[in-house]
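Re: the 256-residue chain
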Amino acid sequence: MLGFGLSIEPQLWALIFTMVRIGAAFVAAPVFGAVSVPLPVRIALSGSIAILAMNTAHIQPPDQVFALATFLSVAGEVLIGLALGFILQIAFAAPMVASEAIGISMGIGFATTVDPQHGTSTPALGNFLSILLTLLFLSVNGHLVLVELVVRSYTLLPPGAWLAPSQFENIVIFGGYAFLAGLLLALPVGFLLLCLNIVVGMLSRSAPALNLFAVGLPASLFVGVIALLVAMPAMGDYMLVIIREGLEATRHLVLG
């Protein structure tokens, strides 16, 4: 019942209520939450997965729509969905941190481009690493793992349940992983550029008449491009570690 003498089909109301958590997770999660994904596609995908969740878990929506308990239940569903997607979004922030560390050392920190996932201007190197991380995420079926975790969350976090304070604490602690993973991702190239800057600094002290900008900037750009080319396999392997850590944190939030 809707209240106020109105009624709604129980199956339709259960489907809409189930779509709340799934839709919130897709809004916050990478890939699904990209601005390039049309809204009708998100709604259709949320509805399809909601039907799957209704057939695998016993989901009991509130009896009335316009009730305080219903609003609290919907708020809890939105919070759980946003938490599930936000954890992966934290892991996907690591390439941006790495691009800032590498781009400043290479001298291309000013080069920006439009991020297709967020629709904002981001460093060109960070956009490249984010696309690479997204392709690796799809190649290891990370999107399917996320859908599985969202569906399984209805069993361990039934409607009406709220996240415990310890779960919020785990999300905050995992937020620091984005900075750690970004620095480790930039470590091979960043260390080589740091050594180059030390050499250029020693040259500038030994030969003060040397034009540092005419020598240092082209050298940093050339060495940075070569270092990225050589270190890309190792960076790709560590991106798989970032994906695994993000999915593991999401699984820990759902399964405990």
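The first strand starts at residue 112 and ends at 114.
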